[in-house]
User: Fold this.
Amino acid sequence: MGAPRVVEVREALIVEAALPEGALVGLDLFWPGRDPEPVLALRRGSSVQVWLNVCPHAGRRLDYAPGQFLMHADRLVCAAHGAQFRLEDGACVDGPGRGGRLAALAVRAGEGGWWVSPVSG
Assistant:
């Protein structure tokens, strides 16, 4: 039989059904040998944006409960400190951390959904 084959996984698949059109969705992505990576994803048509679910100002999760996000004027609001982020580009435009931005993950469309690369480290 031989030794088991080792395969390095570099991407995680988000299936199309997991991302309703226009909804901000909280997910945990898994890569072997790593802790689950909490992310938030937004689908607009065939385009998907994925960011770490971490406020760049305070290092805390952005949701107030798992997968539940505060919104104001089409902006994501950090539940801990009130920083506001544009969903077009992840830029912090109001509150603490203004001028910063959410950490975006690389996304590519593929069969059945979107492939996301982990943050290095």
Notes: The two ends are 34 Å apart (CA to CA). The chain has a mean pLDDT of 88.
